[in-house]
# Entry
Amino acid sequence: MLGTNVETPPVNLFDFEKIAAQRIHKLAFDYFASGANDEITLRENRQAYERLRLYPRMLRDVDNRTMEVSLLTGQKISMPVIIAPMAFQRMAHPDGELATISAATNAGTIMCLSTLSTCSIEEVASRSSGNLWFQLYVYRDRGITRSLVERAEAAGCKALVLTVDSPMLGRREPDVRNAFSLPEGITASNLLGANLHALPKMSDDSGLAAYIHTLYDQSLTWKDVEWLRSITNMPILVKGVLRPDDAELAVIHGAAGVVVSNHGGRQLDTVPATISVLEKIANQIHGKAELYVDGGVRRGTDILKALALGAKAVLLGRPILWGLGHSGQAGVELVLSLLRQELDLAMVLSGCASPREVTRDLVD
Ligand SMILES: Cc1cc2nc3c(=O)[nH]c(=O)nc-3n(C[C@H](O)[C@H](O)[C@H](O)COP(=O)(O)O)c2cc1C
# Structure
């Protein structure tokens, strides 16, 4: 019979999700997979890629190819795919973030570590080869925030990714129904010293929502980007921008990069798909900051489209968790290798020998 089951090796990233759904505990799977409210943005992130058509060029000598790109951080990655920051990875596999960083290293790319990781910054950095970025959530207690930034810099992280779309947690209804909290033995390891490593157990709400509502700084403004610049030498990327004027503000306040993101459809529902706003933002920024995009990237052709519309690279979210759930480090490596093959094929078939040859006119 045709179709996927646990015995069939996955041939694309969607197969990984089906297998992970059978291997990961329901509480965790729901937390990973869900979007906010009606999940309109979650679906739209995919549908917007599916609607775009490619216009390939022929007879362009694509015999010698590279997918390598150089980033503002001075880092080179083997393909324009970076691992997005995602919390609580030990819920997908006991090795958690340690498996992810090892897979990123073997694939020649960067992992962005979440503030809410289940292995500490120092543990993950000890497995990295300088290919680590740190994602920051700003706590009301600026002493805690400053200490996270200092630890990331001391551990050798090459960029600070400030997430700006989450002053509160989007309402993910499966988490509310499941009264989501962390399973026994899994904690937000970076916050151990501050005694903020555990989520409260709520009877009628997500424990993560309660944690964030109490502890994150809802008074954050663009001025705080300057404060962060004053306490670190790491370049700052602002993640969660959906408007050209906000991207411009990020640049004005000293951001070196902008990640066009709607948090994988998990924050404000009914915001547009990221790929549909990318080009306007690219036109506004006009090379003044490096541009990245995430949300719904599942195919090599999606990456090609994102590059054509102005992104330097994409960030890959949930499929990494599906790879972890499938088989830990090996699963993440498989996910990255499938995507690499798909991007290579998409580039060959559209007449591009390198990311530099991916031009605007490839996409309708
Ligand atoms: C389970 C999960 C946890 C996440 N945790 C964080 C986080 O801690 N910090 C953050 O900035 N973004 C977080 N994100 C958002 C991702 O960084 C990224 O923007 C999004 O997943 C990209 O969409 P995709 O999953 O469709 O690829 C999380 C996403 C998921 C699915």
Observations:
- The chain has one domain: 13-53+75-351.
- Residues 31-32, 45, 84-87, 114, 116, 135, 163, 239, 261, 263-264, 266, 294-297, 315-318 surround flavin mononucleotide (CB under 6 Å).
